[in-house]
Amino acid sequence: MTQHHPDSHSLMEFSAGNLSDPHALCIRLHLDQCPHCRSRVDTLDSLGAIMLEDQPGAGVADDAFDRLLSRIDSEPAEPEPKHRAGDPLHRLLGEDLNALPWKRQLADVSVLDISHLFPGQPEKVVLQKLAAGGKAPAHTHRGLETTIVLQGAFTDHKGVFNQWDFVVLDEHDEHRPIALEGDDCITLSVLSAPLKLTGTFTRLLNPFIR
């Protein structure tokens, strides 16, 4: 079961269709596996439809959104669906994430830049694979990094992130992800700017990171 979710603002932007394609993909993948967030987006869609209705003089109370989300939180969630081969990620990349043409970046880290699949988008979109039990280099971020876990799990100072968990990091976050034993941890990340390595030796690689 997912434990880390998009915040309310991100779900509102998704419902309104205001997100870039890569960010929308990350949230869509999370929604496919998280009934709690799906219910929130369904409510936002309904609220948006009400607000767009041509009813002169009609309005929506300032606290309507908060009250609706509160009601959703108290309702039982439907069972989580299993991963579907027809989801947007598989349509983009195929069935087997492990069989992709990964490029080894560091000892435990491999990457695959898929930004070309999102032409015209300003962000960098990358798949990252951290070997089971392996450690990523300590780093922070020069901008926003939105990440969803596609396979396996990792842990950092904020806790454990399992499959389909969602996380957003910025320049205030410094972490060193460690993959849990078992499966390699594969994530999909959308970066508005390159990350910044902070380790004693790895920081020397910063000039080569794009």
TrEMBL record:
Domain of life: Bacteria
InterPro entries xref list: Anti-sigma_ChrR, Anti_sigma_zinc_sf, ChrR-like_cupin_dom, RmlC-like_jellyroll, RmlC_Cupin_sf
Pfam families: Cupin_7
Domain ChrR-like cupin: residue ranges: 97-188
Protein name: Anti-sigma factor
Organism: Marinobacter halodurans
